[in-house]
Backbone:
């Protein structure tokens, strides 16, 4: 009897090999999620950037973040990261006119029983019930889905009006590939890939064609001696131009211009303003790096 | 001649096919496409040497390989087959629906997916709705419903009868209005990786593919 119970217990115990395999799979999933989350953040940033450039609504509109789903095979940790990042970026960019609102009734599973039958659904799928529960009318639901499709990571988004007919008013699809590095944009200053590349090149090339250096000069003139010792020179304006060669800076040439004013008799002081105009030696604009591709649709059924 | 030596030595490491330096599982995690030099220059600016003004000494093609976003083995093979080509599949379905029934261009389209895995099913539905929107159709998130008795009867029918019957019931119980069209994406056999699609409009069921 004891042996039978022991055998039964062993039969129901987890197979160590299977456990090890499962643990290895979980480790692999965590590793992939760790690698993928930057690309996901990049897609979310790009989505909010495009929503800011072309807002769906003319006025600030309440939106419920109704669903965020991650690639099949990755865990919910990535989902939480996505939700937090998206909420943070949207709050930092109110120009999207999407005002995130908290609506627990919208995302909860609700049961509605009537003479026609009993329907179990999420709140966002039953707007009539949401109205009965006192949820403010005119809200929209935002759904985000990210999926790994071969070498590409595809983000799909849609906005649904929470009315009886549940029309989808806007949808958007973005994709990026494993060969495209994430831009790691600042949430408060979102930029397109092209703008980021232009800024990068501007930094490399020295902030544009005109350089205005902050420069302080002190000139000391020798006191007149000899026959002219008693005659002080009058105030005069001077202009100095020239060409500089800067072999250590990536420029073909730099032209500088200085304008100054010197008053010797009283203060022996002068003022000077200087400007430099340069021509970069490297081409300022090359082909832009691959940016996320997208399709967008809007409709009002 | 000796200048080619580093290239020949490095070749086994950079070539994507399985061999002495790359096992079969590792090679499967790359998707590779054969293309011309001109196509490669568009796909990866600056990475491929352009054809010289007087041509090249030898004919060149480019194999562009990209690593999979998710390595194989993290999800079921059947799901992987569907998901890895999801975008192309749903665009094809949306195109087929629009071209087969141009008279429904003004209708409100609903989408239902019949796939064993709920997570994959949701992905297919999401992608199909976006593809229909991208093709200029009006789409709704509404889902048609059936009574419990209908479900009991229909789930015991073979697929060839079940879907037309469900379509009729959707129309009879008012779930699908006269201006509604339902695009159903169906996996008929768990052993296949092809997605089938059917269209329900005005109580009439049509297989699109």
Residues:
């Amino acid at each position: 009897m004891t042996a039978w119970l022991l055998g039964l217990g062993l039969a129901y115990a987890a197979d160590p090999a299977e456990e090890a395999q499962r643990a290895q799979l979980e480790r692999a999933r965590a590793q992939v999620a760790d690698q993928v989350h930057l690309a996901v953040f990049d897609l979310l940033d790009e989505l909010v950037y495009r929503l800011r450039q072309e807002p769906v609504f003319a006025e600030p509109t309440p939106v419920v973040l109704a669903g965020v789903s991650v690639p099949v095979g990755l865990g919910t940790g990535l989902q939480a990261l996505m939700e937090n990042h998206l909420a943070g970026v949207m709050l930092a960019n109110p120009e999207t006119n999407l005002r995130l609102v908290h609506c627990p009734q919208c995302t909860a599973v609700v049961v509605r029983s009537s003479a026609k039958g009993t329907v179990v659904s999420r709140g966002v799928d039953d707007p009539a019930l949401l109205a009965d529960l006192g949820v403010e009318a005119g809200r929209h639901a935002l759904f985000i889905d990210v999926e790994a499709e071969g070498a590409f990571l595809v983000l799909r988004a849609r906005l649904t009006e929470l009315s009886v007919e549940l029309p989808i008013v806007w949808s958007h699809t973005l994709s990026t590939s494993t060969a495209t590095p994430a831009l790691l944009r600042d949430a408060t200053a979102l930029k397109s890939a092209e703008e980021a590349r232009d800024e990068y090149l501007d930094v490399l090339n020295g902030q544009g064609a005109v350089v205005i250096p902050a420069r302080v000069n002190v000139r000391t003139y020798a006191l007149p001696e000899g026959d002219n010792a008693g005659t002080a020179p009058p105030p005069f304006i001077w202009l100095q131009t020239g060409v500089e060669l800067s072999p250590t800076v990536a420029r073909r040439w730099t032209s500088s211009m200085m304008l100054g004013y010197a008053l010797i008799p009283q203060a022996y002081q002068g003022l000077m303003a200087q400007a430099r105009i340069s021509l970069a030696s490297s081409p300022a604009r090359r082909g832009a790096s691959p940016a996320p591709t997208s399709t967008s649709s809007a409709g009002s059924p | 001649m000796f200048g080619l030596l580093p290239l020949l030595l490095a070749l086994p490491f950079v070539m994507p096919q399985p061999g002495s330096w790359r096992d079969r599982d590792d090679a499967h995690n790359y998707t590779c496409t054969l293309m011309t030099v001109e196509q490669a220059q568009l796909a990866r600016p600056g990475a491929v040497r352009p054809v010289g003004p007087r041509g090249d000494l030898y004919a060149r093609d480019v194999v562009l390989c990209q690593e999979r976003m998710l390595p194989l083995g993290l999800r079921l093979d059947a799901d992987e087959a569907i998901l890895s080509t999801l975008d192309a599949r749903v665009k094809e379905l949306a195109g087929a629906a629009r071209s087969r029934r141009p008279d429904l261009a003004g209708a409100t389209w609903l989408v239902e997916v019949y796939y064993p895995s709920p997570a994959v099913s949701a992905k297919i539905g999401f992608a199909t709705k976006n593809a229909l929107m991208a093709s200029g159709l009006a789409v709704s998130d509404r889902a048609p419903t059936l009574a419990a008795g209908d479900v009991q009867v229909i789930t015991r029918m073979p697929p060839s009868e079940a879907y037309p019957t469900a379509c009729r019931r959707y129309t009879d119980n008012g779930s699908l209005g006269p201006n509604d069209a339902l695009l159903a994406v169906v996996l008929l056999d768990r052993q296949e990786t092809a997605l089938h699609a059917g269209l329900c409009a005005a109580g009439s069921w049509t297989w699109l593919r």
The radius of gyration of chain B is 24 Å. Chain B touches chain A at residues 31, 44-46, 66-71, 73-75, 79, 83-87, 108, 117, 119-120, 122-123, 126-127, 129-130, 133-134, 136-143, 145, 147-148 (CB under 8 Å).
